[in-house]
Every structure is written in C-alpha cells, then in structure tokens.
Amino acid sequence: LPNALNYLAALNVHSGAFATAATLTDEVDSITEATGIPPLRYAAAMLAAARGDQPMVLLEWGMSNATERGEGSAVGGGFWLTALLHNGHGRYAEALTAARQACEHEDVVFYGRALVELVEAGVRGGQPDEAVAALDRLSERTQASGTEWALGIEARCRGLLTDDEALYRESVDRLTRSRAAFELARSRLLYGEWLRRENRRVDAREQLRAAHEMFGRMGAAAFAERARRELRATGETA
Questions:
Q1: Phi, psi at residue 54, to the nearest 5°?
Q2: What is the pLDDT of residues 222-237, one digit of tens each?
Q3: Is residue 220 left, alpha or beta, with left meaning phi > 0 and alpha meaning psi from -120 to 50?
Q4: pLDDT value at residue 160
Q5: CB 78 within 8 A of CB 63
Q6: What DSSP string describes the chain?
Q7: What is the pLDDT of residue 77?
Q8: Spatial separation of the C-alpha atoms in residues 77 and 84, rounded to whole Å
Q9: Dist CA 210 CA 14 (whole Å)
Q10: According to a count of CB atoms within 10 Å of the terminal CB, is the N or C end of the chain lower?
Q11: Cα separation of 53 and 60, whole Å?
Q12: How far apart are CA 93 and CA 210, in angstroms?
C-alpha cells in the first residue's frame, strides 16, 4: 500500500495536484510509522523539489539513506531533484552541477529527467555544448517513447537551444494534450522568458501570466517567483 500511494502521489505532482500529493505522502508516512517498515519518501522529496522548498531536508535524508542501503537509482533521483530545485530558483550553476551528477550513470528511472534539467541548466548556465550533448541523448528516448509528454519536453529543450519560437509553441501544444501540467507550466515560463528577451513584452505577458497562475495554483513557489520576476521585467505586476 505505501508503494502504491507513493506512485500515486508522484503522478499527482506530475499532473499539478500538489495538495493531493501532500495528502498521499502524509498517508504513506502514517502507514510506514504504524507498521515499522522503512520510510518511503521518494514522492515526498519530488513534491518538495517541485515546490522549491528550502532547505531540502528530505533530499539530504534520502541521499544518505539511499547510499546506506545501496540504492543507486535513488542516488540518481536525489541529484535529479536537486537539479530541479535549483532550476526552479534560477540557480543554474548549482543545477548544472547536480544534473551532471545525476547523469553520470544511465539510470533507467531518472536519467531522462536528469537530462532535461541538464539542458536547461546548460543553456542558462553558459554551457551550450553540454546542453546540446544532453539533448542528443534525451531525444533518443523521447523519440522512442513518442508520447505527447516526451515530445513536448523535447520540443522545449530544442527551443532553448535554437531560439525557434515554433518549438516553444509545439511544446505548449503537446503538453496541453498530456497530463504533464507541471511541465506545461514550465514550458509556458520558458517561452515567456524567451519572448521577453526578444522584447515582445505583450506576447511574453500572456505566457508568463499563464505560468504564474498555474504555478501559484499548484503551490510551486520557486517557479511562481521566477514567473513573477519575469512579469515584472515586462512592466506588469503579479
């Protein structure tokens, strides 16, 4: 039951239902404490990273616990979530370091997601060649998958590297047809950031307002603050 609830909580983070995810992770904690089985807090750590919680005590605990138990996949997941946390706060150098560590081994569970964070951190952190290499590895997986979620993520990453507006639009369109609400908000944010840098402030506000509203409704505070700062840069107050 804790395993099933853990996966269900992770799905709710993915689909932007953070409040439901928090309720489920609390239930996981209650069951593991009552039965005396080892804690199962992977979804709780995913939720905390997506919200931008500081400090990330769960990640520190998870990395220590995973190392002690020899759970290599969980170590990769910890570095992925650390990269996600730093990207959310706009700390791209730290995100790049964590994403590199997450991608050291081709972990079957988290490797693809770590590559996504590596692309964004590489572009924003001034390491475009590293981002290109990460996208090449990512596209092997997204093309094989072929889902709207996978292809929407790939389009966003290509947009970051090429400054091609059509790719940002494709990302938003594909992710709108998926359950990946959190990633959809991220694509709107990155599209809006690009539009703002192109000095297309009116167009940027449309995407940034949508991203800010989505992140705010979810409870993704760090990403919402990023959207707020970008909106302010366009002359709008959020």
A1: -130, 135
A2: 999 999 999 999 998 7
A3: beta
A4: 97
A5: yes
A6: -HHHHHHHHHHHHHTT-HHHHHHHHHHHHHHHHHHTPPP--HHHHHHHHHHT-SS-HHHHHHHHHHHHHT-HHHHHHHHHHHHHHHHHTT-HHHHHHHHHHHTSS--TTTHHHHHHHHHHHHHHTT-HHHHHHHHHHHHHHHHHH--HHHHHHHHHHHHHHH--HHHHHHHHHHHHTSS-HHHHHHHHHHHHHHHHHTT-HHHHHHHHHHHHHHHHHHT-HHHHHHHHHHHHHTT---
A7: 87
A8: 10
A9: 17
A10: N
A11: 13
A12: 27
Distance of alpha carbon 212 from alpha carbon 204, whole angstroms = 12
72 torsion bin: left (phi>0), alpha (psi -120 to 50), beta (else): alpha
pLDDT at residue 190 tops 80: yes
Quickly state the pLDDT bin for 196 (edges 50, 70, 90): very high
CA angle 194, 200, 202 (to 5 degrees): 115
pTM here is: 0.93
Express each pLDDT in 82-109 by its tens digit.
999 999 999 999 999 999 999 998 888 8
Length of the chain: 238
| Residue at token pair 């005396």 | 36
Q: Using 50, 70 and 90 to split pLDDT, how confident is the model at 163?
A: very high
The answer to whether the CB of 83 falls within 8 A of the CB of 49 is no
Q: What is the end-to-end Cα distance of the chain in Å, rounded?
A: 41
Burial class from Cβ neighbours inside 10 Å (0-12, 13-18, 19+) for residue 180 reads buried
